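Predict the 3D structure for this chain.
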Amino acid sequence: MTILYIETNFLMAIAKGQDSQAETLLSTPPHSVRILIPNICYIEAISVFKIEKQAKLSFEKEMNSKIREARRDLTSNHAQSFCGHLEQAIIENQSLLNYIQSRLDNVIEREISKARSIYLDSDGLQDICKSILTEPETLLIRNDIMDNLILQCILNHANSHYGEEKAFISSNSKDFGTTEVRESLDNTGIRYFRMAQHFLDWFNSRSST
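Done. Predicted structure below.
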């Protein structure tokens, strides 16, 4: 059995259509793979979506402003054409937002049914909160409390499953792919992969030997 840890970016990659193999892995994981996710990732995914939604709505507001401005030009065909393109862009922007929201709802529902949630105990939570306030330089991931909570949750679980084969997928290599974090993952027997396809390539090659 292989324990596969995933995090928030795995959910968002599926919702935004950025990793087709992540979708496949979630829908039909290999029988010998057990998918685990820190429970706080669900909350973070919703928070990330809300931030992106606000950005798209702000973009829509800006486009509406440009449309009103262009409509004042009563002589230029270019201005009217410009309005038409912006109006279509607003429709597409709204459709994309609705699509991502629907996909995120779907992936969270499937993830809850197919993956097991893991939790950070109260001691671990207290330690990280204390470090954020008093010794932020000691944290493995700088300036991101959520990623530190996710990482510690995974490391704690991995330490309690010594000897089992473990892997971790995260496209967030800026935080989870640093030398310090990679070393902490290695020390608990976790192989790091940036994409679902990289994990599947390794898993299938290992299984065939």
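The mean pLDDT is 91.
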